[in-house]
Amino acid sequence: MAFTARMKDLGRKYGKVALGVHLSVSAATATGLYVAINNNVDVDAVFRKIGISTGVSTPGPGDEALPSAGGQAAPTRNRTGELVASSGGTLALALLCNKALIPVRIPITIALTPPIARLLARWKLVKSLKT
User: What is the C-alpha to C-alpha distance for residues 126 and 105, in angstroms, rounded to an integer?
Assistant: First the structure.
């Protein structure tokens, strides 16, 4: 079953709980990305390491570390820092990276929704689940 079909099934079965879980997961990832980018973590390098493409061209072999006048290699470029400075800020880049993580967030939502719905039903915060 495809992700979209699973999400529709979750929406039918769990309703507002599924929507709340998905929005909570999205908010948590966006917040984490914002904090990481604001603290100068090279998110582009992290994404490349785990195999997720950000859609930004990666530096070529000649762009990484060029020797300086002292014979030492210059530090590698922080592509995330350059994008934050040139593209409108940390929040915009965090939201773009959050959008790139949809293939990760959907399975998390699918996995977390049933136990959270059962917990909320046990606490009588939501009506019994539809079958």
Answer: 24
Helix then strand count (H, E) for the chain reads 6, 0
Which residue shows structure tokens 């049933």? Answer: 114
Map the chain to HEC letters.
CCHHHHHHHHHHHHCHHHHHHHHHHHHHHHHHHHHHHHCCCCHHHHHHHHCCCCCCCCCCCCCCCCECCCCCECCCCCHHHHHHHHHCCHHHHHHHHHHHCHHHHHHHHHHHHHHHHHHHHHCCCCCCCCC
State pLDDT tens for residues 27-41: 999 999 988 888 888
What tens digit of pLDDT does each residue of 15-30 get? 999 999 999 999 999 9
pTM of the model: 0.69
Helix, strand or coil for residue 73?
strand
